[in-house]
């Protein structure tokens, strides 16, 4: 077997998420590329939660409706996922908490009691049983579990071995051809990219699905005292405190979801007027309003590109997997500081909390290009009107410079003005930077083409739908096009990518087809839209069927 899909399910709050990651790491050690989809309700405890771990020879970022193995820690998991079972799906279940007509029952509760463990250790018991069932040597399982279970390690290993010994081997999976690779979420990739670009402070008010960035960076700050994480009292507090820190020279990023981003919009406009280089991570979920707090969506694209009062430029990027998230997050922070503009990184729940095999692209960030001010004879002009529109930077503590920022229109010194000539020249100064940003961004792959590049039918998509569309496109022999940078939009590259295409199918997770609307603004009309807006991502088999229809 060169590919396998495993679903593990149980109650929310009982370690299903961690268990899915452990299974993914074990399969990675066998030489497979991994993708993990996580599904959970907006409850701290109770309710049903599950993870689908898909292992494949090639790089992947999507899952199928059907599964090869079901790991059920309770009866609810058996009942809910019957529609995902194939004729040969193998089931391992907790016989103390459920019944199944087929499969192998393991008395997990009894085993835990005998070993003086606690309920959450049922996960390690069933993982041990899984390893035996698919022919994984205990040494590999023990190595991964020992490395990634920090608490009660020996007891967990004992319980996992008990589960391992309880079953016989039923399925034989071949060893993959890949070297083991890191398995990280989109949120972790964004965090690593920001750190690569010199992040010094991260601020957020917790909001799914971006909260994982706050947790990851707070943990990183334990070993790196120069990295600070703060949780202000609200999203408004977050962006205003961040802008104050940026004025003082701190390289700051902030994170939120749609509702919190709405509260930040006035601060976003302020950042443009004051030319403060802020980075905002916008993790989308099902909307409007509170919507489905723990499920996915792609309904904030047009808002991110156009929000704010007055016309001003912002850099907006929508990566499609962990590798792209790492690269473009680093570049977003670097560009924000180089050009003194706001950058917005659009994520969604599928990308943010999905786990991917991680193969980061090397980055060469030109930090020296940031225009730091050096002492001059003349008084410091924070908003010096240069040919490029880029003004020098200086920070408080510099005894040779009085540094003023202003949310009002202002002159070169930062002093409020209502003079029409100065107003016009300062508006034009800020817009001069647009051309520079466009020219620099075009050095990178702002748009990607996959699949059959000679096909006259194309799938157009964005964000986390990248991988599921690639899979569908490869099977159906279609061209797949993914814009990554959304502002400045790579329209010339899109026109080139569409040469020879007679039919465009746009695939999105929203009800109104926002990417389709965006490209229509540039004169491109899609022929069909395949839209999903129930909070769940497309599965590969589902999307293939919809395209065929």
Summarize this entry quickly.
It is built from 18 helices and 20 strands. The protein is an alpha/beta fold and 549 residues long. Helix 17 links the parallel strand 19 and strand 20 (528-531).
The termini sit apart by 30 Å
Shape: globular
Calculate Rg over CA atoms.
25 Å
Major sheet: arrangement of strands: 6-5-4-1-3-2-14-7
Q: CATH first level of the largest domain: which class?
A: Alpha Beta
Mean pLDDT: 93
Class computed from helices, strands and strand pairing: alpha/beta
Helical stretch tally: 18
* CATH fold label of the largest domain: Rossmann fold
Q: What is the strand content?
A: 15-25%
| Number of domains as seen in the coordinates | 3
Provide structural commentary.
The structure is a single chain. This protein is α/β, with parallel strands linked by helices and 549 residues long. The protein has 3 domains: 3-180, Pyruvate-ferredoxin oxidoreductase, PFOR, domain III (Pyruvate-ferredoxin Oxidoreductase, domain 3, 3-Layer(aba) Sandwich), CATH 3.40.920; 183-367, Thiamin diphosphate (ThDP)-binding fold, Pyr/PP domains (Rossmann fold); 447-548, Rossmann fold, CATH 3.40.50. Helices cover 37% and strands 19% of the residues. The protein contains 18 helices and 20 strands. It has helices at residues 16-29, 75-80, 108-114, 122-133, 138-148, 153-166, 186-196, 211-223, 235-247, 258-274, 301-306, 322-339, 349-353, 420-441, 466-476, 491-497, 514-521, 540-548; strands spanning 3-11, 33-39, 48-56, 67-72, 85-94, 104-106, 182-185, 201-204, 228-230, 252-256, 279-284, 315-317, 343-348, 355-358, 447-451, 457-461, 479-483, 485-487, 503-508, 528-531. The strands form 3 sheets. Strands 6-5-4-1-3-2-14-7 form an 8-stranded mixed sheet. It has a 7-stranded mixed sheet with strand order 9-8-10-11-13-12-18, with helices on both faces. Helix 2 (75-80) links the parallel strand 4 and strand 5. The protein is globular and about 80 Å long. The relative contact order is 0.10. The mean pLDDT is 93.
């Amino acid at each position: 077997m060169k590919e396998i899909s495993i679903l593990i399910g149980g109650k929310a709050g009982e370690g299903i998420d961690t268990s899915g990651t452990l299974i993914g790491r074990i399969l990675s050690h066998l030489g497979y590329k991994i993708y993990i989809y996580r599904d959970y309700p907006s409850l701290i405890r109770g309710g049903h939660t599950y993870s689908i771990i898909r292992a494949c020879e090639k790089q992947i970022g999507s899952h199928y409706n059907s599964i090869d193995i079901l790991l059920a820690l309770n009866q609810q998991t058996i009942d809910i996922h019957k529609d995902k079972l194939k004729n040969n799906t193998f089931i391992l279940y907790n016989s103390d908490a459920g019944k199944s007509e087929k499969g192998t029952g393991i008395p997990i509760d009894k085993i835990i009691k005998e070993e003086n463990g606690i309920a959450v250790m049922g996960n390690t018991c069933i993982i041990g049983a899984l390893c035996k069932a698919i022919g994984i040597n205990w040494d590999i399982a023990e190595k991964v579990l020992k490395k990634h279970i920090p608490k009660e390690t020996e007891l967990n290993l004992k319980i996992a071995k008990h589960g391992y010994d309880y079953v016989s081997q039923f399925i034989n999976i071949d060893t993959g051809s890949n070297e083991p690779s890191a398995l990280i979420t989109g949120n972790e990739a964004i965090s690593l990219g920001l750190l690569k670009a010199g992040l010094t402070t991260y601020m957020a008010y917790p909001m799914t699905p971006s909260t994982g960035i706050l947790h990851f960076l707070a943990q990183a700050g334990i070993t790196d005292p120069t990295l600070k994480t703060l949780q202000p009292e609200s999203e408004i507090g977050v962006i205003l405190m961040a802008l104050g820190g940026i004025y003082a020279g701190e390289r700051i990023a902030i994170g939120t979801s749609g509702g919190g981003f709405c509260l930040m919009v006035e601060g976003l406009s302020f950042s443009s007027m004051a030319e403060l280089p802020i980075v905002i991570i916008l993790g989308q979920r099902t909307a409007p309003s509170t919507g489905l707090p723990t499920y996915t969506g792609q309904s904030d694209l047009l808002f991110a590109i156009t929000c704010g009062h007055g016309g001003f430029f912002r850099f907006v990027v929508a990566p499609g997997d962990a590798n792209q998230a790492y690269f473009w997050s680093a570049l977003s922070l670097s560009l924000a500081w180089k050009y003194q503009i706001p950058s917005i990184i659009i994520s969604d729940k599928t990308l943010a909390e999905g786990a991917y095999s991680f193969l980061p692209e090397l980055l060469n960030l030109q930090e020296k290009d940031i225009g730091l001010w050096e002492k001059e004879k003349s008084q410091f002009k924070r908003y010096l009107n240069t040919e490029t529109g880029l003004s020098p930077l200086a920070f408080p503590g510099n005894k040779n410079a009085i540094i003023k920022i202003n949310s009002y229109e202002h002159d070169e010194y930062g002093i409020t003005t209502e003079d029409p000539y100065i107003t016009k020249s300062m508006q034009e100064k800020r817009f001069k930077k647009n051309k520079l940003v466009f020219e620099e961004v075009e050095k990178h792959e702002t748009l990607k083409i996959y699949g059959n590049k000679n096909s006259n039918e194309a799938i157009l998509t964005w964000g986390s739908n990248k991988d599921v569309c690639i899979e569908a496109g490869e099977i159906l022999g279609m061209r797949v096009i993914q814009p990554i940078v959304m502002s400045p939009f790579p329209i010339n590259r899109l026109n080139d990518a569409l040469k020879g295409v007679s039919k465009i199918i746009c695939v999105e997770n929203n009800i109104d087809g926002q990417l389709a609307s965006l490209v229509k603004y540039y004169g491109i009309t899609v022929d069909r839209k395949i839209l999903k807006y129930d909070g769940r991502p497309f599965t590969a088999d589902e999307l293939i069927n919809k395209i065929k229809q």
